UniProtKB/TrEMBL annotation:
Keyword terms: Methyltransferase, RNA-binding, S-adenosyl-L-methionine, Transferase
Residue ranges of every copy of the SAM-dependent MTase RsmB/NOP-type domain listed in the record: 197-485
PANTHER family noted in UniProt: NOP2 YEAST -RELATED NOL1/NOP2/FMU SUN DOMAIN-CONTAINING, RIBOSOMAL RNA SMALL SUBUNIT METHYLTRANSFERASE B-RELATED
Active site annotation, chain numbering: C420 (nucleophile)
Region entry Disordered, spans: 1-32
Protein name listed in UniProt: rRNA cytosine-C5-methyltransferase
Residue runs in coiled coils: none
Gene Ontology biological process terms, A to Z: regulation of DNA-templated transcription; RNA methylation
Keyword Transcription regulation recorded: no
Database matches in Pfam families: Methyltr_RsmB-F, NusB
Amino acid sequence: MSDRSRSPYRSTRRTTGGGGARNAPPQPKDPARRAAYDVLRAVHDRDAYANLLLPATLRERGISGRDAALATELTYGALRRQGTYDAILDACVDRSLKSVDSEVLPVLRLGAHQLLSTNIPPHAAVSATVDLARRVIGHHRSRFANAVLRKVAARDLAAWLEVVAPDRTADPLGHLAVVHSHPRWIVAALAAALGEDPAAGPGALDETERLLAAHNERPQVTLVAKPGRAAVADLVAGGATAARYSPYAAYLTEGDPAALREVRQRRAAVQDEASQLVALALSRVPVEGSDARWLDACAGPGGKAGLLAGLAGKREARLLVAEVQPARAGLVAQAVERSVRDAGRAVVADSTRPAWRDGAFDRVLVDAPCTGLGALRRRPESRWRRTPETAAGLAPLQRALLDRALDAARPGGVVAYVTCSPHLPETAGIVAAVLADRADAEPLRAAEYLPEVPDAAAGPDGAYAQFWPHRHGTDAMFLALLRRR
């Protein structure tokens, strides 16, 4: 269980990598590790998101090539494996890890990742990390980091897990939490969503373990060709590969998406394949009578809106795209700009207190705010920020959005309720709570509108669709389709 990464780095010698910004500020010694450290500090101190901050940091500092690759590996590796590394580090300090200064912890986690999950030689990993420590936390505390990391280097990852992970039989949830670096409550929530019972004996959490392992793998980049503005063939010509499920998707296995002309021109965008498919499923449900007015009720930052606008325009329908936050509404407006027949129109609006009249729309999408537990591959820091209380706090908003979306749909119209989370209180629980109070809505079998996707049916009688990283290679998106009677 060494879990070695595929990092090409076998020494700390730095190469220029080429292509740096002409007017970039002078780079510090070891710019890759310094960039990774600064991003980890911002994630911890300012709740920054690494997937947004790291690319900006690399651009601003002119870091490219092998240094950029190393910074990316260190940042995401330390975040994904934080729970595992913290358990090991806690065994290597002479006091509780919680008492270690917040500016010291990123140094220790970066060192632990290099020692336990990359091919960097141990002496080089310790030396380079301690040198970084001298520069960012001072000479005195760098000696503490040196002592701790030398203890970490005494065992490989598999040996450390034998020491720090709870027994698999006595505490299966705790074992998986440490081995696969997730909070215990998330392990329990994902097991419940998969229908697995920790008390059922050996092998009871096998699929849960595969899901947790998938969360720690680097996800591939998926692109969407906006209908009427680009085609998958255009993306394939630029080096991508046609996707398995979505007819509008392509995988980019390497390179910068912004290097593709279609992405630069906003005719294509980065969007997970499951995110595309839930929007596509909404468009596939037959409706009798009018099919001219569509609504995306909480659209920011606009990925699904961009696809829906193209689909609506090809049918001569109009899409109203609502987002309550003005800044995100601006992103949505960019996403639907120049859609087919200029079908998309973005507005700043609160869909729990809508300005539109009831029964105004033929199709409604509710992509509800959620814990984001379905996107832990892309936002690994989210697993350390979310709590059971987070989900409970979101439930009233999720119920209100779905309730108002059903009001907005005309009789015979259809509503798609979507979350980027498989957590049952956010998915089937919300749908059941809303339907219990209404006699004018009924669930449709969502998976029937996604025939190209195997094993997507979920929930009672397979009424819903649930995507999984370990099954489908996508984010864990949930979809319920409801028809207004």
